[in-house]
Amino acid sequence: MVKTEYVKSLLAQLKKLYPQAKIELNFKNAFELLAATILSAQCTDRLVNQVTPALFKRFPTPEAMSRAALPELETLIHSAGFYHNKAKSLSGMAKKITADFGGEVPDTMAELLTLPGVARKTANVVLGGAFQKAEGVVVDTHVKRLSGRLGLTRELRPEKIEKDLMNMIPKNEWIRFAHWLIRHGRRVCPARNPACAQCALNDTCPSAFKKEL
Q1: One of 107, 121, 144, 171 is an active-site residue; which one?
Q2: Catalytic, out of 86, 140, 160, 211
Q3: How far apart (Å, rounded) are the C-alpha atoms in residues 15 and 190?
Q4: Can 140 be counted among the known catalytic residues?
Q5: Fewer CB atoms inside 10 Å of the end CB: C or N, the chain?
Q6: Cβ of 184: how many Cβ atoms within 10 Å?
């Protein structure tokens, strides 16, 4: 059982460490954020941000992208990796939004999950980043890793990790909490060789200075 005092202290520390933490994908609207998040699977945000300007210039709306030929999409997103599957997801997502949602990205979890290429993580990113709606907690690789290292969950599956986090983190912090952990994971606590000596959380983190994490 994770102590409430520990969670409150952790949130306060993370808020102080990363007051400006936010989504690092570049986007102007919900459609751009959705497409960028689909592209970010197994790819860095930095690389996605290099790919999306040309993609959105060519296909600025779901309707425009729905008419795109797969080979052209694949060429535009090639450097983001897994371009065959990602192109299919982008095409399917754009067609579904155009046909079923009047060309507008839906703003509910249930509707977003009907889109090709969209699971809970992507839906949570879009809801929080584009609509400021907290329907869950984003669980990407960083949030998954740090939630375990910080002793917030023993679960390994993202949906179970998310449930644990939703039960202990106040709802008004769900969106920012993910941003904080992602930023901390990138800057201080990567998968290999976490910088425990430089970590501001090392006095309370149950995994600090352990050789095997």
Answers
A1: 121
A2: 140
A3: 19
A4: yes
A5: N
A6: 24
